[in-house]
Every structure is written in structure tokens, then in C-alpha cells.
Amino acid sequence: MSQFRDTFTKEEQREPLLDYDDSAFMFYLCTVSFCTVLPWTFFSLKKAFYPSSYSKQYPTKTRKGSVYIHCKCSECTSKRERESARADKWSQRWFGGYAWVEKLALLCAWIALLYLCVNLPEMKNLKTFDPFEILQVEPSASNREIKKAYRLMSLKYHPDKNVNDPTSAAKFILVAKAYQALTDPVAKANYEKYGNPDGPGNMKVGMGLPRFLVEEKYQLLVLSCFFLFLLVLLPMVFICYYQRQKKYAPNGVLVETLQFLTHYMAEGSRLKNFPEYLSASGESRAMQVEKEDDVEMREIIDQAVEPKKRVLNAPIIVRNYYLILGHMQRLHHLMSDRLRDALDELLKASLPITQCMAEICVLSDWLHAATSVLEFRRCLVQGLDGRSSTLLQVPHFTTEAVRHCQRGKHAARELGDFLKQDPEERKGLVDMSPDQQLDIQAFCHQVSRMKMEATVFVEDEAEIVAGDFATCQVTLTRTNLN
Known about the structure:
By secondary structure, the protein is mainly α. The chain has 23 helices and four strands. It is elongated, with a radius of gyration of 41 Å.
């Protein structure tokens, strides 16, 4: 019965051709870890020694090689110096923000990599069948030398002469096989072709995966991990990403904001309506209301002038509404650092939102509403109210200086008129210090002087007739740039 069972289970007892190799997995894991940790370390150290936050905010050259010229007034210069000092600060480089988390993770990765390298299994060279090495002859040896070496080796390892050496029989068989591989034509042909005098043999392949993956006692754990990763974790990541992305329209604005603007905006919407629209956007309502807002906003609410009566009264909308009015009416000195951060976040979201407002007006053929949106966008960028003079953009200019500048001889009603004047003709500078006058001179040198040229034409036609599709080409030139 035992012989019958052995006959039919011989294939099951045979050594598998494909096996999981723990040592190969360790080498594979070390290689992948090294290829991951090394570039990660390079970019982390590059960010630490050469911070890019300042260069991104204040670049020196464009991609085409043109040189940026930043404003050289005292306030802008001090702001750049503060940002540069903040970026150059050692603690900010290495541990500012989430940098310390990255450095800690990188340190743990290097420790794990060194541990893997220290505990790598010892490499064993793959042994091949070499008859010349077994018989201890040169590859260029003649048949006579091979036979002589065979006689000596066979006498040396013959089992009858080495009764107490259990390995002598195996060595004797190996010597005989080596002699056969070098003298027998068939065995020699097999050796030259397959590296084995007996012909092709089975090839055993090892996979660079740990052996415990196929062990019976870990099967439930391995299957559970694969189930959680493939059927739970990956779908959850995709669902979370999709749920987040579907909130945004292709132009980067929240779909909620787009729906709100489409519902509330009308042909009669004007500049006075848009601060409330912006404060009621989804980006604005996603911000958090703090307990200190009631105290810190009180003075801003008292001094800000409302262009119209508010319709929406949610706390976050009211706070952001007065922050926008405070920005447009230049009440920044009344804002705390926390409120200024909230205003910066709101202004960052205002550009795509006002772009969306303009697109709605253009698609609806609301010319006056579209013009009002552009005016509102200009007010946000320049920090001006719709009724404020553009001269307030000049450094150190107050409402009194603006009134003085707009009266009498050499009066300048707008900023463009002020820029066209010679430095000696400019008014409103009498009570200012030399440093303040230098700031104004630097501002006038830096601010853009735009020249606009518009051309209407029909492509490939010399004349325009009724029914043609005309193209309007607008060219803006900054005349103060070289």
C-alpha cells in the first residue's frame, strides 16, 4: 500500500519549480527603498538649503529671460526683506510648517533602510558545473592530460579507499561526470549547449516575495490585507478624490458658488452688489467664524460705509462682507493679524470668482453688469472703493493730499495724469519727508503706463462688408518698460 501511494504521489513530493524567496525579497525591498529615499533626501535638502518660496513670490527672471523689476519703495522693500529673512531663517527652512513632519519621516526611512542593509542575508554565489575545475585541468588541456587527471582524481576519491569519508562517493561521481563531459561526444555536446552533460534540466525560479505569503497559518491575514487594500482602501481614496473634485467647476470655482451667482446675478447688478455676492460665495462660507470676531470686527463695522443694505445675514457672510469693504476703503490698520489672514484667503479666491461673474455677464449679454464686474475686480486689486480716487494708490497719499493734488494749477485728477507730470510739477508732496518723496518717485517709475491699440479686421480680406465675421485685436504695451 505504501509503495502504491508513493507511486501516485511522487509528483506532489517533487520540489516546486517556483518558490517564494525571502532573501531575494530583502534585496528587492532594499533596492526599492534606496531608489525612493535617495531622491527624496535630495529634494528635501534642496528645499532646506535653497528655499523656493521667496523666489516663487519674487522671481528675478521670466522663463524667456526677461528681468523682473520690483517696486523699490520703502514699504515694498521692507516687505521683501521680511519675506527673505523668513525664508532664510534656519528653523523655518527645516521645521517650518509641515517640514518637520517630512524630516521626521525621512529620518525614519533612513533608519529602516540601514536596518535592512545590515540584516541582509549573505549572498551565495550560484554554482555551475565546470568539468575543468573539477578535474583541475586547464580549458586548453589535451585528451591525454584529461585522462591522466581523471585517473588521479578517481583514485583519490574512490569510495573503497575512503571508507570513513561519506562525501567521497559524491566527489567520485562528480569526477566521472566531468570526465564524461569532456570525452564523450554526446555528453560534451550537451555540456556545451545546456551546461550539463545530462542534457536540459528543470529550472527553479524564485520570486522576490516573502515566504509567509503562502504559508497556511498566514493565509487569512494575507487575504484580509489584500481585501482591505484592493476593495476598501483604493475605492475609498478614489471616492474621496471624486467627492472633492466634483464640488469644483472646470474654471476652479465651487459649483455651489456658480449656482449662487447664476441665481442672484441679474442685468441690473452693479458694483455695490458684488461685495455681498463675493462674501456669500461657497469659498467664503467655507471659512470659519471665530469667537474673537465680534470684538475685532466692531471698529471696522462702525467705520466702513455700506454701499447698499445687506440682504444676507449669516455670521460668516457678514464678517467677510465687512472685510471686503474694509479692504476697499483701506481700513487695514483696524484689522488684526488673524483678520488680515482671513482677508488674504478671501482675496485669493476672489480672482476666479470675479472671472466667473464676468463670464456669466458676457454669456447673458449684460454689458453694464460686465463693466461693473471689471470695475469691482479693479477695486479689489487696487484696494479702492468705487468712489475713491486712483491717486490713493500713491504711497503716503491721504484723502487730504488727494484733494490738494486735484485743485489749482497743475492739478491731477487721476493717477494717469499724476504719472505724466514732471516730478517738479507734482502736487501734494510739500509736507512729505525726503524718504517719502523717494518712495513716490520709485512708485511712479515702477507703475505701469499702458498704451492700448485696437484693430478690427477680417482675416484674408482687405475690406469689411456686411455679414463678415470680424476679428478685434487689442494690443497692450507697457511704455515704461525697456
